[in-house]
Write a structure and sequence with these properties.
The strands form 4 sheets. The chain has a 4-stranded antiparallel β-sheet. A 3-stranded antiparallel β-sheet has the order 1-3-2. By secondary structure, it is an alpha+beta fold. The model is unreliable at about 140-145 (pLDDT under 50). Helix 5 (about 90-95) packs across helix 11. The relative contact order is 0.16. Helix content is about 40%, strand content about 20%. It is globular, with a radius of gyration of 22 Å.
């Protein structure tokens, strides 16, 4: 089915609605299903991105719900630093099996070069799992001689590669540390989908979740996209990892909004700040804000606010109050 070209105004509404940023989000599970996935990252100047992405859509939700869906109800699955709906596991496993792509080649070469280390890790998980990575590293041969694997602290790398290849799974967390086990003991039985078919499904899911994509300078809508009015008064902040602005070229085409995360830019060369969040009001990206949360004292500070050209500044008090309540919960 042909995907239609749409105007900038239509594309903005479609994109915001497709990403559940129009107030239609109701709960964590259905939101993750709508988005397709959540990206995990330890950066938490305000909150980890997976939590901030959900807050932008749900407001001050119960943060424990994500863990319950992952580790108790198992309706979500963590794989390769992302969270996906469990029903997408057959698609993920097709990605795990494929030989396509540079990263897959690197991973296979790494496992071949470190075959004995791989066998050791899998044997330890089989015998003693689930385990934290450090609990495997602590199980060393007799003597404390320097070892080229453990001495270089390659355990995290090996577990990450085995996870990407579908041999081990993240089965829980202790604080911020991942708990690992054999994938066959954690993943439920699934149908086997060939990678070409899985890739077509994944690509279509990604397109549908975005609503609109930029193709050769044109804004093209998914054929299932819905163009609905967006509440003009709804205002929220977006994670730098939010899919609404993740594609910087698309963000420029939709809102004339040039955005980059300046964490790794030297302070003197930053245009805005260290961890700046886009401000979304209705179907417009209208500015950016740099909030910083002091967890020890429960204090939310704003280091700066910048409005786009031609935008009338809006009150941010209610949104900041909601964010502060969420972070303190």
């Amino acid at each position: 089915m042909k995907h239609p070209e749409v105007s900038v105004e239509e594309a903005r509404r479609i994109a915001v609605h497709a990403q559940a940023l129009d107030g239609t989000a109701t709960d964590v599970l259905s939101t993750v299903r709508t988005l397709g996935f959540l990206q995990l990252d330890p950066i938490s100047t305000v909150a980890p991105p997976q939590q901030l992405v959900l807050w932008s859509r749900l407001g001050a939700y119960d943060r424990g719900e994500l863990d319950r869906l992952l580790w108790e109800q198992r309706k979500l699955v963590e794989w390769n630093a992302f969270v996906y709906p469990m029903e997408d596991l057959p698609l993920l496993q097709a990605r795990m099996r494929t030989r396509e792509g540079t990263w897959q080649r690197y991973r296979r070469e790494y496992l071949k070069e470190n075959a004995a280390f791989r066998r050791y890790v899998l044997r330890e998980l089989d015998r003693r799992g689930p385990l934290l990575s450090r609990e495997i590293e602590d199980h060393r041969p007799s003597g404390r001689e320097e070892h080229r694997w453990w001495g270089e602290r390659k355990m995290g790398l090996m577990l990450g590669v085995l996870n990407a290849m579908g041999e081990v799974a993240v089965v829980g967390r202790r604080g911020k540390q991942r708990v690992w086990d054999l994938a066959e003991r954690w993943y439920p039985p699934t149908e086997k989908i060939p990678w070409p078919a899985a890739k077509r499904i994944i690509d279509d899911q990604r397109f549908r979740s975005l609503g609109v994509r930029l193709e050769r300078g044109k804004l093209i809508a998914h054929h299932d996209a819905v163009d609905v009015p967006i509440p003009e008064r709804r205002l929220t902040f977006l994670s730098p990892f939010d899919r609404l602005v993740h594609d910087r070229n698309r963000a420029e085409a939709l809102w004339d909004f040039f955005y980059r995360l300046e964490m790794y830019v030297p302070r003197a060369k930053r245009e805005y700040g260290y961890y700046v969040l886009p401000i979304l009001r209705g179907d417009r990206v209208v500015g950016r804000i740099e909030p910083v949360y002091d967890r020890k004292n429960g204090k939310l500070d704003v280091l700066g606010t910048w409005w786009e050209n031609g935008v009338r500044p809006a009150s941010l008090k209610a949104t900041l109050r909601d964010l502060r309540a969420f972070l303190a919960s």
